[in-house]
Amino acid sequence: MQGTPFISVEGPIGVGKTSLAKEIAQAFQFEILKEIVDENPFLGKFYKNINEWSFQTEMFFLCNRYKQLEDIQKGFLSYKKPVVADYHIMKNMIFAEQTLKDEQYKKYVQIFHILTADMPAPNIIIYLNASLDTLLKRIKMRGREIERNIDPHYLARLSDDYEKAMTAFEQNNPDVTILRYDGDEIDFVQNKQHLNRILSEVQESMLKRSM
Fold this sequence. Notes:
With about 210 residues, the protein is α/β, with parallel strands linked by helices.
């Protein structure tokens, strides 16, 4: 997939990943890959009792994301079709490290590395983050029943973990283009100029990578 754009949009819950991925797909006529969320039968229970349901929740997400990436490998990338996804598989490790018990985490890491060893990886990452107040406001606005019981402390820790993970990822993957945006300053849903700025910078990044 050398020159084929594979963009992932990442960031904590409620930051606007899917909304931005849809805008990019529409603007550039890319295939869109959306993570399965509502179909996870454990997620509602997870938000009510993280300790009890974390392993089942994370394993469901891992297996489904693996299947999606496997389909990309067999289909989209075989025909050099550009793809934009509203997640990066690395997010599994961010969530797992925060929620799983030690023994569960060790097993999970082994499975993660086996499944993702040969999977296609994005060459451009758009990283969105925002303050806890903004994340909570956006989660409330989208009104998903399954997210009503999200613990603000959990969300705050998750946001911090994303910052650390993205900083480490950027240092260890200099060949991947990373575009960062502050969700407190940029509202690409309500402000067309903000959206156009992001789309312009995405296009510029793709052109640079194609040279």
